[in-house]
Amino acid sequence: MKFKATATAEDITGKVKNADHFCYGEETKLAWEAGKLTADITEEQRKLTEADLVIFQFPMYWFTVPAIMKGWMDRVLTLGFAFTHEKRYSQGIFKDKKAMLSFTTGSQESMFSANGINGDMNVTLWPLQNGIFHYCGFQVLAPQIFWALSHVPSEARGTMLEGWRKRMQGLLGENTLAFTPLDCLNDMMSIKLLL
Predict the structure, then answer these.
(1) Is 18 found in the same domain as 82?
(2) Residues 22-34: tens digit of each pLDDT
(3) How many C-beta neighbours within 10 Å does residue 35 have?
């Protein structure tokens, strides 16, 4: 697709509200409301609107997604389209959709354990699974991880792919990961106001 990874003022067709103090989030929200986002963004938003399940497939780079995928998230998951202050987390816009990560690593699984040199994989994935997917309301499925793929024999890679194929057949019926619902944030804010 050659998707542009950088989020810039060029993502908006026509004039922006405040060119002297450009705020990407606010400007893309206004552009989304006015139908003035670029065609590449609106096409991806259309696909996301139609999807029941979104699988983010990638090779893990530097403990996260590659730049082009992060750019996709930055540009497509705009304020207004993917979240608002009122519609986020368990009350999010995509609460009826599922999302998951499917990726390869360059390290063995043991290196991503709580005591491993790379740290706990659940901690590594928290910004993606909670901070992006759950924030936008997605029901998040457990990730599909292909550990140290380039370091295993071809037979083992075949076994991994076969396991993934079988898992995909029942993916929509899987239980989702548990995250703190938005109600807890609202309750905590109410308590602080009372204090």
Answers:
(1) no
(2) 999 999 999 999 9
(3) 9
On whether the CB atoms of residues 171 and 141 are closer than 8 A, the answer is yes
Q: ∠50-53-55 over CA atoms, to 5°?
A: 120
- Distance of alpha carbon 33 from alpha carbon 16, whole angstroms: 13
With a pLDDT cut of 70, the percent of the chain lying above it is: 94
Provide the 10 A C-beta neighbour count for residue 124: 16
Can you give the residue range of the structural domain that contains 112? 52-194
Together in a domain, 57 and 42: no
Nearest of 122, 172, 164, 121 to residue 146 by alpha carbon: 164
Tokens for 134?
């759950």
Contacts of 56 by beta carbon, 8 Å cutoff, 6+ apart:
65, 69, 99, 100, 101, 102, 103, 128
